[in-house]
Specification:
By secondary structure, this protein is an alpha+beta fold. The protein is built from six helices and 16 strands. Strand 9 and strand 10 form a beta hairpin. 36% of the residues are buried.
């Protein structure tokens, strides 16, 4: 079989076919997939019927894996796998954001950590007939399209990323205690340098980025809204309609993603499973690394833990 790569938009997303990723990959195939991944930021594999073990094995081809979720845990028997179920927030928190903006819900996974996951790999299990799509926004293209003065300004800034989810009135004591114990806060550069491609990335994860360091609340709000509004322009985004047994892999270091809330307006079920690769500590254009304020760095899950 010959690997084929089909771009899905001008800047972001490509479909990879001609390879069975449910089986061990050759070094050549893995390298070709990774090259396409770095170029297109989001890659899609269709009709790849997998179980948890096969998804974990595929992901380990490209690096060490993290715990399923740094706060919310994992599925039984597979510490690397996180269940992305439609109603996974039941008994935790349900309130919709009060001020819905075009960038509401966009995020890169767990950027509040000192070393956020580098790659996310999401597998479609139960897919609604319509609705439940996923968006990605390309933060490399977003940076490149800024004016030169705004690029320089962004490169001089640092942002405070926090993981402090709201707690509903019906949340269990166990969940409240877990949230308090696992709070995460990190200062990241607003523009990071991608560790493999050298590209500059407008590293703004709206769900986690709460303020700009050393700015007043009003200044911070105005500056971040300029960047967020810019980053989710339609020409920078890629919208994907899931099908059963799809697997999508994206670069958390260069894109943010969003699942629209329309799925909650239907009775359709939606079940996906995610694994994430261990990430590095972001570095700014000036060479300064991110600084951990609270919480522990994410650590790898040993391969034998799933056996």
């Amino acid at each position: 079989m010959t690997i084929e790569i089909k771009p899905l938009t001008i800047h972001t997303g490509a479909e990879i076919s001609g390879v069975d990723i449910t089986q061990p990959l050759s070094q050549g195939d893995a390298g070709e997939i990774w090259d396409a991944f770095l170029k297109w930021k989001v890659v899609v594999f269709r009709n790849q019927k997998m179980d948890h073990a096969q998804q974990v094995a595929f992901a380990r081809t490209f690096g060490d894996l993290t715990i399923g979720h740094a706060v919310f845990g994992h599925v039984d028997g597979y510490p690397e796998v996180y269940s992305v179920a439609k109603n996974r927030w039941d008994n935790r928190y349900k309130p919709a954001p009060k001020n819905i903006r075009p960038w509401t819900g966009y995020h890169a996974d767990i950027t509040a950590a000192h070393n956020p996951p580098s790659v996310s790999i999401l597998r479609g299990d139960i897919i609604p007939p319509y609705g439940g799509d996923t968006f990605w926004a390309n933060l490399v293209v977003a940076y490149d399209s800024l004016s030169e003065p705004l690029k320089k300004f962004a490169e001089s800034l640092r942002g405070l990323h926090k993981f402090e989810p709201p707690v509903g009135v019906d949340a269990t004591d166990e969940y409240r205690e877990m949230q308090e114990r696992r709070k995460l806060t990190t200062e990241h550069p607003i523009v990071r340098v991608h560790p493999e491609t050298g590209e500059k990335v407008l590293y703004i994860s709206p769900s986690f980025l709460k303020s700009v360091v050393d700015m007043s609340p009003r200044e911070s709000e105005q500056v971040l809204e300029i960047f967020w509004e810019h980053a989710v322009r339609p020409e920078f985004t890629f919208r994907y309609k899931w099908e059963e047994n799809d697997l999508v892999m994206w670069d958390n270091r260069s894109v943010v993603h969003c699942a629209p809330r329309d799925i909650y307006e239907t009775d359709f079920d939606r079940q996906l499973y995610r694994v994430t690769l261990l990430g590095d500590v972001p570095v700014g254009v000036d060479g300064r690394e991110s600084v951990s304020i609270s919480g522990q760095p994410i650590t790898p899950v040993p391969a034998q833990a799933a056996e």
